Amino acid sequence: MYKKITYILMGVFFISLTFSACKTPSSLSRTENTTVPANYNNSQDTTNSATIKWQDYFTDTYLIALIDTALKNNQELNITMQEIEISRNEIRAKRGEYLPSIGIGAGAEVEKVGEFTRNGAVEKNLEIKHGEEFPEPLPDFMIGAYAKWEIDIWKKLRNGKKAAVSRYLSSVEGKNFMVTNLIAEISNSYYELLALDNELSIVEQNVKIQSDALKVVRLQKMAAEVNELAVKRFEAQLLNTKALQYGIKQEIVETENKINFLVGRFPQPVERNVQSFNSIIPNSVYAGIPTQLLDNRPDIKQAEMELAAAKLDVKVAKARFYPSVGISAGVGLQAFNPEYLLETPASMIYSLVGDIAAPLINRSAIKASYNSASAKQLQAVFNYERTILNAYIEIVNQLSNIDNLKMSYDLKKQEVETLSTSITIANNLFKSAKADYMEVLLTQRESLESKFELVETKKQQMNAMVNVYQALGGGWK
């Protein structure tokens, strides 16, 4: 009667402990907000430039060759490819965790036990009763197979595997985002190089113009039409313009080597068509609608996959509060003499064990892990929302930039044409003594600056064309 009551009380005790083990702390949760504005600048056109392949979006054959080489040789991209391989192996590892592990083993040992131990006393007693000597030392030979399996009742292991899959997909999207950025960086650097080439050409043209002007001033000084001050001012202007060449040449070298680094090769000249820069017309860009960002932007898809993995991590952490059920089994052959090892069923051994375990006391480590997983999930939610917001703002900024740069370029072009004409007028007036030499110098300086600004505006136009393509998520497909 007392024994029965004891068993009932023990059962109630263990059941209560199991239920207490299943209690989990409340988690932090927040639903992510993926709502974006309906359009950009009130446009409902769904045509999207992000769907254009980069080989078709860029028309310069030299630029296409550079991008193609970079996608094969860029070291950072190749490092990312290995990270994808690491993530793929994580999936294999997680998949193996919820499958039974089966192994095979063999062993041999020799044992000498003390006579005054339990085993020693048993052996001595057998020798006395039956008159047979027990082998001493006692050999032992064994061969067999064993298996272990944790039954994934709470989907802890399967959710861990799904989280690994999400992180693998995230790493793939990270690679795609890097491809988009790499294409954009090479393109922007290439257009910067063309702009520098044109700036150098402008400086060389101005050196010739100012050299001719200096000759005229020297002749006028010999004719006593101007003084030495005018000659020196023209000389100083010419020297200043000549000095600009070397700064631009250094920038050309550095930009070439920046491209060489991105392409994954040692410094060498970068092939390009210098004359094409002024005739380049930026592509027409179609932004589509904002919801297309969710499919086109790799960084948004990467953040989405990280969020999915974080949610699964919370489920895995929660499952650690619940009891785990395991099964282990073994079968084999064992004997103290190899001659008897294959004599079955006498030498056969087998076992089958089931166990259940649950955390009852000192669960602070599990709670801390669960709370951390919850906090990381919130981080992933905020990161996902931030990535979407950033993408939308980038596109709005670049679309506005394209419109403003077009207006600015048209005005700058008119300014350059006006000042180029002014140089001829100023030189003619100076020769006929109807204009001061300072007016000539000022006109030359303004003309040079305006030409530089025109080249810079053209470069910014090309960069905006590249940046909006990048912002829309183009280039990786």
Strand order of the largest sheet: 1-2-3-4
Provide the domain count: 2
Q: What is the succession of H and E elements? A: HHHHEHEHHHHEEHH
The CATH topology of the largest domain comes to Outer membrane efflux proteins (OEP)
The CATH superfamily title of the largest domain: Outer membrane efflux proteins (OEP)
Instruction: Please report the first level of CATH classification, the CATH class of the largest domain.
Output: Mainly Alpha
Low-confidence residue ranges: none
- Give the helix/strand class: alpha+beta
- Mean pLDDT metric: 86
Portion in beta strands: 5-15%
Biggest sheet, open or closed, and with what strands and sense?
4 strands, antiparallel
> Helical residue percent?
55-70%
Put simply, the count of helices is 11
Number of strands: 4
Distance between the termini: 77 Å
**Estimated radius of gyration:** 40 Å
Plain-language structure description:
The chain has 477 residues and is α+β, with helices and mostly antiparallel strands. The chain has 2 domains: 26-98 and 152-322 and 360-472, Up-down Bundle (Outer membrane efflux proteins (OEP)), CATH 1.20.1600.10; 104-151 and 324-357, Outer membrane efflux proteins (OEP) (Single Sheet). The protein has 11 helices and 4 strands; from the N terminus they run ααααβαβααααββαα. It has helices spanning 2-22, 54-57, 61-73, 75-97, 118-130, 156-222, 228-263, 293-296, 298-319, 364-431, 437-472, and strands at 101-111, 138-151, 324-335, 348-357. It has a 4-stranded antiparallel beta sheet with strand order 1-2-3-4, with no helix packed on it. It is elongated. It starts with a helix and ends in a 5-residue tail after the last helix. The model has no long low-confidence stretch (mean pLDDT 86).
